[in-house]
Amino acid sequence: MARLTRQTKAFHTPLPTARAASASVTGWGASPWHALWRVSPGRLAFWLDQLGELLSAGVNMHEAMRQLSVYSRDGRLRRLSHEAAEGASQGQSLAEELRRYPQLVPPQVRGMILVGERAGALPAVCGELADELRQQQYARWKLLAYLIWQGLLLFAALVLIPFSKLVMQASARQLDTLSATEGPVTYVLRVAGPVVKHWTGHVLLP
Predict the structure, then answer these.
(1) Rounded to whole angstroms, how far apart are CA atoms 79 and 71?
(2) Per-residue pLDDT tens over the stretch 145-164
(3) Which residue, 84, 66, 71, is CA-closest to 22?
(4) Is the pTM of this model over 0.90?
(5) What does the alpha-carbon distance between residue 46 and residue 72 come to, in Å, rounded to a whole number?
């Protein structure tokens, strides 16, 4: 009797659909590693630009995602597009698909895409999001250039300037030591003479 009950329960237990299986596989979209190594705003802007252009040209969401799974610049966005194409073929909206990637797609992007889909203006929203993300990328580049410049200045202040002072002090001591036996002019002529002779012999008189 117990065996029959177990078999009956197993029969009435709903089998996982292909979509549920896909959602369980896509745990990578919620991985905390994406918070440490995020998709750059520039690459996400390029992805949204392509999506907006495809939708404006009359391409449906499934075909647009299929093309983005091939031509996107970021490997994670290509994988996202491939899985979103499967969802689009089953009637899922893009906003619903992006909810599976909380660490990959910023929440403001997911929210604006949801608004665009409900308003029927997704291509325009994609273009606006792409422009905003490009501005973020430009600001990031400016900050990076500023930090590199400040690092070079700090390196010069801590390393190059003290090192140059040490070199000048050592040269001055050597010159003082040599000037005790020969004059500065004689020392300069003795050191620079062979260099000048070699240069004039090989450059001026080939």
Answers:
(1) 11
(2) 888 988 888 877 777 666 66
(3) 84
(4) no
(5) 8
Q: What does the block give as tokens for 66? A: 């299929």
CA distances for 54 relative to 65, 119, 194, angstroms: 9, 18, 71
For residues 145 and 48, what is the distance between their CA atoms, to the nearest angstrom?
26
pLDDT in tens, 113-152: 999 999 999 999 999 999 999 898 888 888 888 889 888 8
Beta strands in 28-155 (DSSP E): none
Q: For 32-66, b where at least 16 C-beta lie within 10 A, e where not — what string?
A: eebeeeebebbbbbbbbbbbbebbeeeeebbebbb
C-alpha span between 5 and 1 (Å, rounded): 6
Cβ proximity of 78 and 68 under 8 Å: yes
The rounded distance, in Å, linking the Cα atoms of 126 and 15 is 37
CA distance 5 to 86: 37
Find out whether 66 and 5 touch, Cβ atoms under 8 Å: no
Compute the distance between CA of residue 130 and CA of residue 107 in angstroms, rounded to an integer: 15
What is the rounded distance in angstroms from the CA atom of residue 127 to the CA atom of residue 48?
A: 7
